[in-house]
Amino acid sequence: MKENEEIVIELSGLLEDNAGDLKKQWVKEMTEMGLLEKLTPVEIEQQSSAIYDTCVLTLKTGMYEAAKKYAREMAKKGVLEAMTVDQIIMGMLKLRDVYGRFIFSEYKKDVEKLYEVLGVYEPVANRILSIVALSFVEERERVIKEQQQAMLALSTPVLQIRDQILVLPLIGTIDSARAAQIVEQLLNSIVDAQASVVIIDITGVPIIDTAVANHLIKTIQAAKMLGADAIITGISPANAQTLVTLGVDLSMMTTRGTLRSGVKLADEMLRIEVVEKR
After folding, report:
1. What is the pLDDT of residue 155?
2. What's the rounded Cα separation, in Å, for the pair 37 and 70?
């Protein structure tokens, strides 16, 4: 154990003393591979110094918190600039190569000592690589999830057409994830608009099965709990027949064939008189 500590102190000291030359070599090799095209000279200097110092600090202390923190920051920046996992990993692999060649040149005359130093260095280098890769993948997944949620919100707009009347036009397939998002968005809109009637138009929903029907029923029940009555419009003859065949309880659903007739019913329920201009 004491032997390893001495090697760590010796190696980290060597890497610190030779930081200038090693960073220059690293930047040169990354530039030749086209890995730094999106960075300015100032950014290259800042990033290379930060990564180099983080790696040396991790080696010296045996603590990976600094490496994790920097990896998260680098991942956020990389994802925003559309950098690929390959680009990030190749940059870290190049640094590992530069370190490895330097270690070999320093200890090549003492093979036994060389193996001892590599035995200390390689696990740290590999762990840092895995931390960087994992951070990048996690950030990618986070951004993709946010984009999916944003797309779901855009694909399920809740429109206020009159005072106390909301329209929710549904288009496309409804799965469990989207159904949960629909309910949440609709309930929030009911509260914000203090709506009394909600028209759910399913003209654009191609297939109505038991799961979709149950989602609709749950949505109606949730709206009712907030004091809003629901009207379902746009049920096609084929979907109506499917619902009957499935034995879905439609007794609690108020339905109309078209969105226009649904709006008319909502007006009647709220005793709103609409005067058409000619």
Report:
1. 61
2. 21
